[in-house]
Structure formats: structure tokens, C-alpha cells
Amino acid sequence: MLSMNGYLIFIIAVLAGSYLLDTVLSILNLRSLSADLPAEFHDMYDAAGTENPSGISRNNALGMVESTVLLIATMVFILIGGFDYIDRIAARPGGRNCFRAAV
Predict the structure, then answer these.
(1) How many domains does the chain have?
(2) How far apart, in whole angstroms, are the C-alpha atoms of residue 34 and residue 3?
(3) Are 103 and 87 contacting, i.e. CB atoms less than 8 angstroms apart?
(4) What's the domain range around 54?
(5) H-helix or E-strand containing 90?
(6) Residue at 1 is within a domain
């Protein structure tokens, strides 16, 4: 059984809160996209030369998928004890100091 201490709960809450905030902001950003150029910018930019909002939405959607996969992978790694395993490998006697410093 997994025992959760206060630090683990705090880290999971921060990761989940950051993910939720990022997702909400990305969704709000996608909703505000418009193909129409504001009237103030008609003389400064060519309508054909401006970036298409569908390209931005595809990049934003891909970023949301990427952040979801990264959150899941990080949570699984934390909960199965991956950081403890790496720490134990680094702390083995006879290990190289540069590896210990890198970890």
C-alpha cells in the first residue's frame, strides 16, 4: 500500500493545479482565436500574410496532449518510487561522483 506523506500530497497538488491552470488557459486562448484582423491593423498587416488561427489551434491542441502525457508519466514515476530508485543508484558505494552530482 502506498503511504502518502504531506510532501507527496503537496507535490501532487502543485502538479495537478499547474496542469489544470494551463489547460483552462489554453482552452480560453483557443476560444478567443479569430481569423479576422482588427480594423486598427488593416493598414499594417496583409490579411493573407497573417498566420492562420487553425495552425495555432493545432499547435495548442498538441501542447495540451503533450502536457497531459507528461503529467501522467510524472505522476506514475513518482507513485511507483522512481525518484527513490534513482537516488539509491546514485548513492551506491563506489559510484562515480559526476553521476551523483548529475542526479
Answers:
(1) 1
(2) 48
(3) yes
(4) 6-102
(5) helix 82-90
(6) no
